[in-house]
Amino acid sequence: MSGTRIRSRGRDGSTVTGSAGPEVPLRQVWLAAWPITAVFVLSNAATPLYVLWQRELGFSKGTLTVVFACYIVGLVGSLLVSGVLSDRIGRRPVLLPALGLALAACLVFGTAGSVAALVVARLFTGVAVGAVVSAGMAAVTDVAGPGRRRTAALLASCAMVFGAGLGPLLAGVLSELAPGPTVTVFAVEAVLLASAVPVVLRMPARRAEGGGTGRGAGGATGSGTGGPTGRGAGGAAGRGADAWIRVPGVPRGRGRQLALGVAVFAPGITATSFVLSLGPSLLSGLLGTTSRIVAGAMAFAMFLTATGVQFAVRRLGRRAILTAGAAGTALGMLTLAVAVRSGSAPALAAAALLAGAGQGLGQLGGLSLLNSAVPPRRLAEANAALNVGGYLLAGLLPVSAGYLSDAVGLTTGATVFAAVLAALAVLGAVLVLTAPRSATDPVHRTGEEEDEGEGEVGR
């Protein structure tokens, strides 16, 4: 297969054209995204089961959101290590332990008899997901090659949200129809995770472009486009440059792209996190049902929307995608407030779908910005930085809403949450619309394709 021509800016500002080498078959790029899907199935598989555990173990809505937030704690902690580790030693050494930890989480979930066991299982799940959203998504870009970086962002993002939606649907159906409602689900998920192991083993063994330690051509850490802490070219990047555990960042001059991505992605994923954590309780109050299939179906529909909308907008510019994502989240939260105030189940379903669209668009826009602006040797760390910004908010606000709901009632707590998140989404849209177009849709991108032929995902 012929190579892909790419254009980039040289150090003197001139345009440089070169070959990115032969393209791999697109099916290999799709296959590289499977470990992301498999792990994200686990990330939300417990959602329909919380009502069951809550009845058996007897804990409050506040405790429920804390159990959910333990996943965020594990994820953020993982992101402090996994992105840097992946960029230095390669993708496989990070992804294989992550799959092992996910399998351990399945075992703990399947035998859980206490809140403590749920906390441990959620922590394990969070650590595994943190490794996947940094190393796994970067691995998809590695397999795709420089000529398909935008396509790689699309497939990695869709793999994440599709898995996140498939998990609760699978759990809801199996827990209602199969014996052992909290065992069968995780036995099936263990099989899915095991099937991802050979996929990871077949991934390219090469390290990210630029070497395993992040050193540039000049030999100094942080040379070229910037070191691990984002400092200037050609010199030492500072005390934190060689740290294995640090707050992930992006190269110098790429902070605006990261900030814009976080501004839209964080409210979007917080909205879907709220639906996942308290959605079953809202459904129980509005419909008078504790059906785990209904709860799982709502979550699946939310993330199916997040998947479909990304394919629908893949030819649009990043500014348009991010703006639409912020609008979807804001509208979703306004609809959520209407749903809980009026007791309307259809409005709750509409809020979930809009929340899914907001997350999907914000995630795609953020990943595309980073893929366009960050060199491969720093891409896993940049992905980790985007997710740290998103999941921190997704951990704090739903927990606050859960305890507020215990104190003042679910209707008031959900309304306050919706108002705060809608305001944050509007702020994100303002930041995107007032940013220079060169920050979101540049004409020339260092080391990236010109987007000619992009969007041919099924080619």
Topology:
Elements: E1 3-9, E2 15-22, H1 26-32, H2 34-45, H3 50-57, H4 61-89, H5 92-110, H6 115-144, H7 149-177, H8 184-201, H9 255-287, H10 292-312, H11 318-342, H12 345-373, H13 379-408, H14 410-434, H15 437-440
Antiparallel strand pairs: 1-2
Helix pairs in contact: 1-6, 2-6, 2-7, 2-8, 4-6, 4-13, 5-6, 5-8, 6-7, 6-13, 7-8, 7-10, 7-12, 9-10, 9-11, 9-12, 9-13, 9-14, 10-12, 11-12, 11-14, 12-13, 13-14
Tally the beta strands: 2
Nearest-integer average pLDDT: 78
Along the chain, the helix and strand elements come as: EEHHHHHHHHHHHHHHH
Described by the principal axes of the CA atoms, the overall outline is globular
Report the C-alpha radius of gyration, rounded. 21 Å
Number of helices: 15
Largest sheet: 2 strands, antiparallel
Structural class estimated from helices and strands? mainly alpha
What's the arrangement of strands in the largest beta sheet? Answer: 1-2
Strand content: under 5%
**Span between N and C termini?**
13 Å
- Described by its quaternary structure, the protein is single chain
The helix content, as a percent range, equals 55-70%
Taking pLDDT < 50 over at least 5 consecutive residues as the criterion, the unreliable ranges are 1-21, 207-239, 444-459
